[in-house]
């Protein structure tokens, strides 16, 4: 990589594709809290192990259908909508991961396209971006509502690339979960792992090219240089 004028850098990267929960904000504990409330009447205790094994990274439809065998798609979606409405009501304000806003500002200044790529429904995506004050910066929002299959399938990342008319080597993804990493890597996108729920070593073992505890630990110029 060579430095260009006015502090910009030459790179093939044209877009940054961000997961949402655990990647923009440490929302997993907040979701666990709501799942615990929703599932307690059904005899489930949502502790750390339960959340990690049976909830984290999966689509809500799959979560509820696995927990309640025989549930129809419509019934699972209704439970999902109720759970997510409870999440939005309980957490109108959110704190971004340390350094996120500065990192986003640097990406915008560099002229990079930004997309949100999440297994969450659109209402949650809009809520979280608004709560973080980032709505204006994301040109595209790809949610589980608009793709045939959610993560761990590559469909959400492939849709984001399609919208930007980019190839996989022209983007970097940001993920925190095994499910999300599998999706990004299956789409051929080099990925940064955010160690909000897994260790940096675990993220690297899952295929993350880079790993960091937060965005203060990441340098955009360095990422662009290493990604080519």
Give the termini distance in whole angstroms.
7 Å
CATH class of the largest domain: Alpha Beta
Low-confidence stretches: 1-7
- Strand sequence of the main sheet, in spatial order? 3-2-1-4-5-6
Share of helix, binned:
40-55%
Please identify which CATH superfamily of the largest domain we are dealing with: HAD superfamily/HAD-like
**What is the architecture of the largest domain at the second tier of CATH?**
3-Layer(aba) Sandwich
Provide the domain count. Answer: 2
Give an account of the 3D structure:
The chain is of the alpha/beta class and 228 residues long. It has helices spanning 28-39, 48-54, 60-67, 73-90, 100-109, 122-132, 155-164, 178-186, 200-205, 220-227; strands at 15-18, 113-117, 140-142, 171-175, 190-194, 210-212. A six-stranded parallel β-sheet has the order 3-2-1-4-5-6. The longest helix has 18 residues, at 73-90. It is globular and about 55 Å long. The relative contact order is 0.18. The model is unreliable at 1-7 (pLDDT under 50).
Descriptive key words:
single chain; 228 residues; alpha/beta; Rossmann fold; DNA polymerase, domain 1; 2 domains; 6-stranded parallel beta sheet; 10 helices; globular; disordered N terminus
Summarize this structure briefly.
This protein is an alpha/beta fold and 228 residues long. It has ten helices and six strands.
Topology (SSEs and partners):
Blueprint: E1 15-18, H1 28-39, H2 48-54, H3 60-67, H4 73-90, H5 100-109, E2 113-117, H6 122-132, E3 140-142, H7 155-164, E4 171-175, H8 178-186, E5 190-194, H9 200-205, E6 210-212, H10 220-227
Parallel strand pairs: 1-2, 1-4, 2-3, 4-5, 5-6
């Amino acid at each position: 990589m060579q430095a260009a004028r006015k502090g910009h850098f030459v790179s093939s990267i044209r877009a940054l594709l961000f997961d949402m929960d655990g990647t923009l904000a440490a929302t997993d504990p907040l979701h666990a809290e709501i799942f615990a409330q929703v599932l307690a009447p059904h005899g489930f205790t949502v502790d750390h192990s339960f959340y990690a094994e049976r909830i984290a990274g999966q689509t809500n439809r799959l979560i509820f259908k696995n927990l309640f065998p025989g549930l129809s798609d419509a019934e699972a979606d209704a439970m999902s909508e109720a759970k997510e409405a409870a999440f939005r009501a309980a957490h109108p304000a959110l704190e971004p991961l340390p350094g996120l806003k500065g990192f986003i500002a640097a990406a915008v200044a560099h002229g990079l396209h930004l997309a949100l790529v999440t297994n969450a429904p659109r209402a949650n995506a809009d809520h979280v971006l608004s709560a973080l004050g980032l709505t204006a910066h994301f040109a595209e929002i790809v949610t589980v509502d608009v793709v045939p299959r959610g993560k761990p399938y590559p469909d959400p990342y492939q849709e984001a690339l399609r919208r930007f008319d980019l190839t996989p080597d022209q983007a970097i993804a940001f993920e925190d979960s095994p499910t999300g990493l599998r999706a990004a890597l299956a789409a051929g996108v080099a990925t940064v792992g955010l160690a909000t729920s897994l260790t940096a070593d675990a993220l690297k073992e899952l295929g993350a090219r880079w790993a960091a505890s937060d965005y203060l630990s990441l340098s955009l110029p360095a990422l662009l240089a290493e990604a080519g």
